[in-house]
Amino acid sequence: MHIPLFTQDGYGSTNSLCPPSEKTYTGKALTTGWGRYLPNVTDISDKLKIAEMLLMPIEDCIAAYGELDRNKQLCLKGKLGAKVCSGDSGGPLFQYVDGYAEAIGISSFGAPNCPDSLSVFTSVAAYHDWIDQYS
């Protein structure tokens, strides 16, 4: 799986993310995106941003957004005011496991107007077999 890994200063590296080795993840993860970075501002970032996220129980996102697929979606909250916003959809969510960055999710959606709230990501592990078959 060749998903570019990005550095904190917004420049890409030549490294790739590994496919997920686990089905269940906990703790911290990182995401990157070009999306809006302030609430109620329509401009997207001209620099790739990175955000530290915390994996939350899926029940938290179900309470916020309604029905979700527990087996195919992940619930995350930005750490220290970080958030996923318009323009970030499709971006990677990755976590370091045994020293390797693993792709664990793909940004799907969050609350309108980008408040500090929960974000939903699609689980890469849920589609691992399909990815293997077609890549």
TrEMBL record:
Q: Which organism is it from?
A: Dinothrombium tinctorium
Identification of the protein by name: Ovochymase-1-like protein
Any one GO biological process: proteolysis
User: Where in this chain does the record put each Peptidase S1 domain?
Assistant: 1-135
Which Pfam families does the record match to this protein?
A: Trypsin (PF00089)
Enumerate the SUPFAM superfamilies for this protein.
Answer: Trypsin-like serine proteases
Q: Name one GO molecular function term.
A: serine-type endopeptidase activity
Lineage, uppermost ranks: Eukaryota, Metazoa, Ecdysozoa, Arthropoda, Chelicerata
For this protein, the record's SMART domains field holds: Tryp_SPc
